[in-house]
Amino acid sequence: xxxxxxxxxxxxxxxxxxxxxxxxxxxxxxxxxxxxxxxxxxxxxxxxxxxxxxxxxxxxxxxxxxxxxxxxxxxxxxxxxxxxxxxxxxxxxxxxxxxxxxxxxxxxxxxxxxxxxxxxxxxxxxxxxxxxxxxxxxxxxxxxxxxxxxxxxxxxxxxxxxxxxxxxxxxxxxxxxxxxxxxxxxxxxxxxxxxxxxxxxxxxxxxxxxxxxxxxxxxxxxxxxxxxxxxxxxxxxxxxxxxxxxxxxxxxxxxxxxxxxxxxxxxxxxxxxxxxxxxxxxxxxxxxxxxxxxxxxxxxxxxxxxxxxxxxxxxxxxxxxxxxxxxxxxxxxxxxxxxxxxxxxxxxxxxxxxxxxxxxxxxxxxxxxxxxxxxxxxxxxxxxxxxxxxxxxxxxxxxxxxxxxxxxxxxxxxxxxxxxxxxxxxxxxxxxxxxxxxxxxxxxxxxxxxxxxxxxxxxxxxxxxxxxxxxxxxxxxxxxxxxxxxxxxxxxxxxxxxxxxxxxxxxxxxxxxxxxx
Length: 517
What we know:
Helices cover 2% and strands 38% of the residues.
């Protein structure tokens, strides 16, 4: 605890209210004692669009978007009459349960673009779909920014390459890395860096993915910032490596992860430098219908500095096209997907969810959803500790489109009899923090744990932004918490985070939203 006292101090500010009415509105009659073991999925509700992309905004709202053709019947047609020149965008306010359309009308189809939340709270979206399929899928070089404070879209400088399915990663220096994607039907092998100060891109000309010998997966590569400040690639391709983004860039190829190109699997950094890879297809070569075959329940633990790997406990269900979402207690909630590996296949859904506990290396069965969540589905941790699950479809006709959502209530929200648990409360905490600082958190409750979860932005079974860490703290006799912020931007890249406090029963508070940089 002595180390805490060496940090710089930050005074608390008043906690901005985040409504718990979404939970309180659920009557206890809906819950059963099994909720304490498995959690609970809320009834299915309508969603204005198929949520292919979904992210949490600094004001606690949720942005999601689809395509210019929400039926998915014409998304692969050549552009005509303005088609592919806009994107349906929805912003949901969880407190008021209202949806508002803020379509992107900058001339870009943001379907299968890369995206991230910038340290300043704005959404950066790069790339997208040009509609020149169905064999040679073409991307866009377009860069767009969404301002959640004015709810407006703005077109920015184009990238050097067209990219469809790129991954965007916020770096420790506040720049953003764009990796992978499809460039005019071929791999976009050179990464690019966005500088938000100059509002411009630069290309990492000496960081070609060709060093992977064709074994780098360019469709939403799984990129994670490690404690060295480099960006570790855990897949989906079978080779692992890390990217040094300084200067013109360079890759270090580390070696083979396992025997599968885990396309449509997932990868989560659940502690600094610790990654869990789950599921995915076992046969990436498309069959005659253009789909993929086979899934696995195998999981793998990876060190993001060295690439050292170890088998994790197998998931309870083989699945691909699933989502893996970090929870306030550091566990990982996995939902959705199917057992066939085929895109848009609602005939083999995995409706049962499960939760991974990194401390015990065990999986526990969780509640079953009502709706199949497969290809193009999403899941996102909300500040109240619940998980929003939505989407699935687009690309296989109207019958496969899921314009609906279910909210998962994890077991930590319930008492053993199924009633709602009393939650600790954050009375006040800073809204902005620096690194290696001691800051105050006021609460009337006894606290056993303080955790930090980075805001999520998810698509195609990969949450590009989320990460988790425990924070060191002391609690005074008066209840005041003294908490140490993350040591540096390599373990906690600058941006928006959810701060949770947990009581001795593991029940989390509603989060305080803070910005760290």
